[in-house]
Every structure is written in structure tokens, then in C-alpha cells.
Amino acid sequence: MAARCQVTGVGPQFGNQISHSHRRTKRRFDPNIQKKTYYVPSLGRKVTLNLSVKGIKTIDARGIESVVQDLIKRGEKL
């Protein structure tokens, strides 16, 4: 599963892991990506999306219809 949210576009960030002795090595901070399935009445079918938790909250606030319309305008594959 790709570490990128389809709604917010958030992806992995990079930084340093710091040990007790303060040595630094590169590491990757992955977002909390969840696979969620929603029923979209305008399309008449279910849509499975890879979402961050913030993306799930966005769908709860705006509704699945408006979010799917934005994804289709952006050319995102559903």
C-alpha cells in the first residue's frame, strides 16, 4: 500500500533518528494510512481509498460526495 493519502496528499517525511549518545541516522516518518471503503450514491458503487486519519476526518466533515467530486476533477483514479 502506498504511503500517500488520496484526499490530503500527505506522504512520508524524512528526518534523523537520534540515539542516546546523540548519533544521527536517517529515518522515514510514514503517515497513518488506512484503507477505507465508502459507498458513493452518485456513482452507484463502493469506492476504496487510501486515507490518512486527517483525510478520514475531512470526509466526515465535508461528506463523501464533495470529496469524490474533487478527486475526479483532480484526475485521481477511484
Automatic annotation (TrEMBL):
One example of a Gene Ontology biological process annotation: translation
UniProt xrefs under InterPro entries: Ribosomal_bL28, Ribosomal_bL28/bL31-like_sf, Ribosomal_bL28_bact-type, Ribosomal_bL28_sf
GO terms under cellular component: ribonucleoprotein complex; ribosome
Region named Disordered: 1-26
Pfam families membership: Ribosomal_L28
Gene Ontology MF, one: structural constituent of ribosome
Keyword terms, alphabetized: Ribonucleoprotein, Ribosomal protein
PANTHER family: 39S RIBOSOMAL PROTEIN L28, MITOCHONDRIAL, LARGE RIBOSOMAL SUBUNIT PROTEIN BL28M
Similarity-based family: Belongs to the bacterial ribosomal protein bL28 family.
NCBIfam families, per database record: L28
Protein's name according to its UniProt entry: Large ribosomal subunit protein bL28
Organism in which the protein naturally occurs: Nesterenkonia sedimenti
Gene: rpmB
